[in-house]
Specification:
The chain contains four helices and seven strands; from the N terminus they run ββαββαβαββα. With 197 residues, it is an alpha+beta fold. It has a domain at 59-179: 3-Layer(aba) Sandwich (Cytidine Deaminase, domain 2).
């Protein structure tokens, strides 16, 4: 049986949708107003995906929080990558939990700074996280990996502020939901023998 082909001689099943185009991250001339993110309906970068501009605001955390996250970074154990990350979780009752990334020769056994801080807050704290601060020596404000974003979605309120920064003092404020829209959560497990509430 012969496959149906389009006028261009392509099998329709092989055609790719062309509804999305890559856009530059900033304005055409590269300029940016202070406190603004890239212009256009959506800001796009390899790390952040397509997210509404309003979810990525150039705003620093309180100075004490930023300094605490930078200090936590000094405790990182990174003999393989040399890429040290510091994190701070502040809970609703004002307690602080610090984290730094810890690498392992068996790479999958490594753990990120965000998860160290979040797990400490979950096991030692009595109130939920109110903010997460993450900092690294990166060209742009550091962004969490996918696993850390999933852990945030599990342990933090959806609209909780997350501050992402670098040692140069560049900061972005976003939220848990903006970092991982459509996260897999406990709702997906209800009715499947789990203990989801």
């Amino acid at each position: 049986m012969r496959k149906e082909t389009s006028s261009e001689g392509q099998n329709p099943a092989d055609r790719r949708p062309s509804g999305r185009e890559d856009r530059p991250v900033g304005p055409e001339d590269g300029s940016r107003e202070a406190g603004e993110l890239p212009s256009g309906p959506k800001a796009r970068s390899p790390d952040r995906g397509d997210l509404p501009e309003a979810r990525w605001i150039r705003e620093a955390p309180p100075a004490a929080w930023a300094e605490a996250a930078r200090s936590a970074r000094d405790r990182a154990y990174v003999p393989y990558s040399g890429f040290a990350v510091g994190a701070l979780v502040v809970t609703t009752d004002g307690r602080a939990f610090f984290g730094a990334n810890v690498e392992n020769a068996a790479y999958p056994a490594s753990i990120c700074a965000e998860r160290v801080a979040l797990v400490k807050a979950a096991t030692e704290g009595e109130t939920p996280p109110a903010a997460l601060i993450v900092v690294a020596d990166s060209a742009e404000p550091v962004t969490p990996c996918g696993v850390c974003r999933q852990v945030m979605a599990e342990l933090c309120p959806p609209e909780m502020p997350v501050y992402l920064g670098n040692l140069a003092g560049d900061w972005i404020r976003t939220t848990v939901t903006a970092l991982l829209p459509g996260a897999f959560g406990k709702e997906a497990l209800s009715g499947h023998g789990g203990r989801a509430e």
